[in-house]
Write a structure and sequence with these properties.
Layout (H helix, E strand, L loop, with lengths): L5 H6 L9 E4 L4 E4 L4 E6 L7 E3 L8 E6 L3 E7 L6 E7 L3 E8 L7 E12 L2 E8 L2 H4 L3 E6 L5 E5 L2 E6 L5 E4 L5 E9 L4 E9 L11 H10 L1
Antiparallel strand pairs: 1-2, 2-3, 3-4, 3-5, 5-10, 6-7, 7-8, 8-9, 9-16, 10-15, 11-12, 12-13, 13-16, 14-15
Length: 220
Amino acid sequence: MNTPNIAERDAYPPQALHDYAFLADGERGALVGPRGEICWLCAPRWHSDAVFSTLIGGAGLYAVTPRGRFVPGGHYEEGSLIWRSRWITEGGIVECREALAFPGEPGRLVLLRRVRATEGPARVWVLLHPFAGYGTQPLREVRRDDSGEWTARVGELYLRWTGGGDASLDQVGSTGAQFTLDLALEEGQQHDMVLELGARRLPDEHLPGPSDLWSRTERA
């Protein structure tokens, strides 16, 4: 198993278990840390190999983190496994609404993240570093289409990421490639990101828009 690159390891060290929130859709689950790091996710099912495994010292992470100093917090929306990461920063308050879209499909997960500058402007750093097989199978066959949608393979999985059209694709030595994105949001502005991971080639017909996916998850 590969170890995280130094910057990733230092920025997102393991936390006490009670500091993590749990996302789930009936088919798989994920853990979200206080810095907005999804550090544990097995895909496509509960018993599959991990794609994000920095929780146990492996590689693979999906983080949405405010720039600069902040105080972390968060809460579940009532009666749901929708989590709201909340950070008080030097310039205001930033939130990230997070969920595995519900109801879940056995062969495909849909991970929703909605970043919002609740009070004051916000600068947010996004890092998407999938690494299948507990950190042994990096990204490959990465493409970005004209709309800014990314597709790739990671291990045996198919990946599609929307909302990261301005992201850079960086090589990080033995830990493969990762996406990085610097978001600047004005007060009240929000930004949606949708990550799909599937055991089979993802269908050409796209998912509904993020607002519809959120509504469906809330109702379910």
